[in-house]
Structures are given as structure tokens and as C-alpha cells.
Amino acid sequence: MPENAYEEMMLIKKNFHKEDGRLGYHFIQSFNGKEVSARECNDIGMELANSLWGDKYQMLVCTHIDKDNVHNHIILNSVSFIDGSKYHNSNVEIALVRKINDDLCRKYNLSVVESDKADKETDYEERTPEYYKEIDKFNKLCNELNMISDYKLTSIEDTQNLRTQYLEEISPLKAQKEIYMKLYNKTDNAADKTILKARINILNEDIDRLNSRIQTCRRIICKAEKGEKEDWIIQKRFQDNKERSKKENTKNKDKKRIR
Known about the structure:
By secondary structure, the protein is mainly alpha-helical. It has eight helices and three strands, in the order αβαββαααααα.
């Protein structure tokens, strides 16, 4: 179901222990003006996605009608639900996506892009700065929703408490790093320097991880307070967690009564 797409995709990642790196891919399938209806657009998008990835990867097809032309946004999970392998969007894959898309357009008597620019399409990664900004926003939003689900956050207050917890955890790590740095700078012993450098690197990884989570908490709080466009997704996730919590409490009470 579309409303559960994020949870279902993350479940596959967790199952194969592949929650880091690229979370997914975002494709846009556009048509010429209003030559297709919203329903036809979605059907063709589903046909494209199923023919390319349906036997191995989860995908979500969303049809937008807010522009001059009806178009689809296709979100593809980077991890396969079959064997956990990661999808790589190579030049060969890009060429295949375009070929299947063009074949579908011809099948339904729709316009096909014919231009030098289209013929010279290269790797999907070669995009404008605006593209990378959108991908960065998408990845950050996924991290935010993932945090809300993993920690069962139900409000801004919960998120603030979690952020405070991370701040308390990071303080001693930074203090320990300072101690190691001073020792590293004072000693001339090569073996000691190697050991201290390894410990400093481990602390840096832990500090970076906590800093990333602190920033994720901050973004959740800001979006919820300012009512940014992603706020409705965050609020919905909060509400879903509240409902789950109520159901779990009810089940626990029922179990106690039975006993």
C-alpha cells in the first residue's frame, strides 16, 4: 500500500542489513502535454516499473497532475526483496529504462522524445546541482522518517528528548578525543601514536554518527514547528506511532486481565 511504502522498503533493508548508503532511486516519467489522462499515466508508469524491476525490487509510482503535463514519479528501493542485492543505475540500465519507456509510448501511440540530447543521454548520476539538492532532501527525509519509526516518536517533545540524549552521549566522547589528541601531540613513540590515532578515528566515527542523529532531530523539530511541506508526513508518522502505542497498551492490559 502507498501509505506503508516507506516502512515496507525499510523492512527489506533491515532484513538484509543494508540500511546505509543510497536508499533508493527517483525516476520521472513525463508525457507530452495532456495526451494521457492521470489514470493512463499511472497505468503506463506501473507497466514500466513492473517490466523493469517488478520481479526483484519494490517500487512506488505516484502520478502528478500539478504541472502542464501529467507525469509519474517512480521511487525504487535500492535493495532487492529477493536476495538483498543493490541496484546500480549504470549507463546500461539507463539505456534499458529509456528503451522500455519508448516502446510503451509507441505501444499506446504516444509521443517519443527524438533529439540529440536524448540520444546522448549518459549516466543517471550526471545531473544538475538542483537534482543533487533534491536527492539530498529525499535522503534526509528518509532518515527523519526512519528515526521517528525506529524510536517510536509521537511528538516534538519526544524528538527534543532524544536530541538531548544524543547531546549528553556526545559530550564525553568529545572530551575523550581531546585527551587522546593531547597525548598524540606529546608523544614521540611511533607505536603509541598508531594506537592513539586508531582510538581517535573510532571516536570520530562515533561523534559523526551522533552529530548526524542530532541534526536529524533538529530537522524534524524545525519542520514540525514551522509547518514545512514535509510536515504532514512527519505528523502522520507521529500519529501512526501514537495509534500503535495505544493498541500495544490495550493488548498488554487485556493480557493482564486474562492472567
